[in-house]
Specification:
169 residues; mainly alpha; two-stranded antiparallel ribbon; 3 helices; 2 strands; 78% helix
């Protein structure tokens, strides 16, 4: 008969080999599952990165278009303000040179049937002459110029607000 220790050694060796094969198979199964999991995650991350890149590009294009619209509004506002200031300067210069006169207001002036000078628009109580003082005309044109500047600034602000509203959903 065979030596019992030999049989015991062969049995232990056989069990150890079974345990080693099972251990290795378990390890291979875990690595395979991990590789499949990583592949799925890599695909999802690649798709997510492409979506993020596309959304970033769209946001940059929208921001660039919005910035361009704001720059156009600002340039238009500067041009309109400069034009209004130039018109005001020309009008004030004309008033200083006494070029601007109120001719239509003079037509109603003249003596009344009673022999006294009748008041007429722009002439006061029978005063001769139809011109406004140049300082008054200058001040009026300056006031109109300030109002034009304020109106242009308000229009520019409204354009910015409308542009921002177009951007928001």
């Amino acid at each position: 008969m065979m030596n019992p220790y030999l049989l015991l050694g062969i049995g232990v060796l056989w069990l150890a080999s079974l345990a080693a094969v099972g251990w290795k198979a378990n390890e291979i199964g875990h690595e395979t599952e991990k590789a499949a999991w990583l592949a799925r995650d890599n695909e999802a991350l690649t798709a997510a990165n492409a979506t993020i890149q596309r959304l970033n590009d769209e946001a940059r294009a929208t921001e660039k278009a919005h910035t361009q619209r704001l720059a156009d509004i600002a340039a238009n506002n500067v041009k309109e303000t400069q034009d209004a200031e130039a018109r005001t300067r020309r009008a004030v210069a004309g008033a200083r040179a006494l070029v601007l006169r109120q001719q239509p207001a003079c037509q109603g002036a003249g003596p009344s049937p009673t022999g006294q000078a009748a008041p007429a628009p722009g002439t006061g109580d029978g005063q001769a002459g139809c011109e406004l003082p140049s300082t008054t005309v200058r001040d009026l044109f300056q006031l109109v110029g300030d109002a034009d500047t304020g109106m242009l600034a308000l229009a520019a602000c409204q354009a910015v607000i409308l542009s921002d509203r177009k951007e928001s959903p």
